[in-house]
Design brief:
Elements: H1 21-37, H2 39-47, H3 52-70, H4 82-104, H5 107-114, H6 117-129, H7 135-152, H8 165-190, H9 198-218, H10 220-225, H11 230-255, H12 260-267, H13 269-282, H14 288-317
Helix pairs in contact: 1-11, 1-13, 2-3, 2-4, 3-4, 3-9, 3-11, 4-5, 4-8, 4-9, 5-8, 5-13, 6-8, 7-14, 12-14
Amino acid sequence: MSNLPASSASAAASAPADTHGFKSALSILLGASVWGIAWFPYRVLAAWGLGGMTAAALVSAVAALIALVAFARHLGGLRWSWLFVAIGLAAGVTNAGFVWGSVNGHVMRVLLLFYLTPVWTALFARLFLGEKLSAAGLLLVALALSGAGLMLWTPEVGLPLPARAAEWSGLVGGMGFAVNNVLSRRAGQLYPEMDARLRTVMVYLGCTAVGLPCALWLEPGGVALAPAIGWGGLALVLGLAATLVASNSVVQYGLQRLPANRVSLLMLFEIVIAAVSSWWLATETLSWKEAAGGLCIVAAGALSGLVHRARRGEEGAGGCALQPQ
């Protein structure tokens, strides 16, 4: 997702306490709301002949230009590191998976598979940060995987794997999201003095770098049509890009003032908005089995924040100096 607010959650690591908790929470909810409905303008652009991936690349390129102009005076604080290149590329994979999947598949199924993030975050945190998974963490991973299995299993197919390319796209996008979260946490530990808004520039540059070759590969016809989208298409691209940059900037306010575990809980509001918008705008619904599996995935994501908070409280009581997650 090119907004990718949770990928910057480590910005909360060195931020002062927020005396306006309501404003901070509202900023996160606004960002989640934008991405809960962002699939629809992408579908409109795809219906006009661009294709989902071409629309994603075009919007990301325009958003990158807007972000570069908007945050030009902060670019002097940018620090070079392979971490930021990796964060940008992971953001690109996340955005490509989310957009292509939601344009070409069932929005809620794609989004719920995307939100298997706690599973991949646990694995990648072990790989990149050396963090051990607690017993509670293992139970949450099992809960999320059980929910995915319940949602995907059918008697005809048997093995509970995604049945469509769009669902695989959402799953891979969620993996990219987890990598982004873990690497952003590491970057926040190494470069706490860097302005968090610069991550917005990295995110959109990465989304463009990944999105353009994917569009050329998957939708060469859409790329050829891009210069001829007309004033309506151009206005929608500019409006969507500006909205994403603005919402990302608003979200940074909350990210710098709220604990990351609370941010992860608030971001689940995206699923609520997506459920309502997909029912209202695309008449999509979930079966009882899909809904039950989805609730397991959402519960695992919500409880993971509570587990992290309890663990930090226990370690803090022991006198450890902690890096907020």
